[in-house]
Amino acid sequence: LIGRLMFELPEEMGLIAVAVRQTQGKGRGGNVWLSPMGCALSTLHLSIPLHSNLGQRIPFIQHLVSLAVVEAVRSIPGYEDIELRVKWPNDIYYSDLMKIGGVLVNSTLIETTFHILIGFGFNVNNSNPTICINDLIAKFNREEGTELKPLSADCLIARTVTVLERLIEIFQEKGPNGVLPQYYKYWVHSGKQVRLRSEEGPVAWIVGIDDYGYLQVHQEGKGVESVHPDGNSFDMLRNLIVPK
Fold it and tell me: Where do the BPL/LPL catalytic domain residues begin and end (predicted)?
């Protein structure tokens, strides 16, 4: 629906579709994304000028959206310590233990404008088959003696879009350095050791992400290299970066 509409609208007009349930959700690499009721599910259309800071670094958009989802919860007073985090390149995690959501970005360049379709979904209210944001809030209440209220999918979609708008403004003004400190505050990889290519492969350390949003790893004696998400997969459970 949005794919058909987005070229018919004025460039400055945003567009979002919100679903209560998805039957044909898609992830990266052709993966299927299961989306029952109780998830926050939407596709957002944005226009980004090619010659802007973000237009020159389009892969960064997925990082900004992942950060916006986490900030949508953790920027609410009282909810700052809910253990919601980002995993490079496009996942939302409970601590470094369990995936709770994901982001998929498609871009089309028409003349000097990127038309971006951002699909994001995250589990707000389903305890099965893994865990959801409201479970994390209930767990926090039990452990800390607080009485934080559960959150709704609609509220979190609205907050995510609002936070994303602010993050894009900051990025357009200041570039990657305007948002990276906040991204690193919430990401799961700081100082993590990984093996490249196989479980017996060379050891490397995750350093950060570069100016174009690619993962940087430091291998002893070889300096820092960038790893592209389209050519590599990061298996966090086994601490492996492997070519696809």
Answer: 1-172
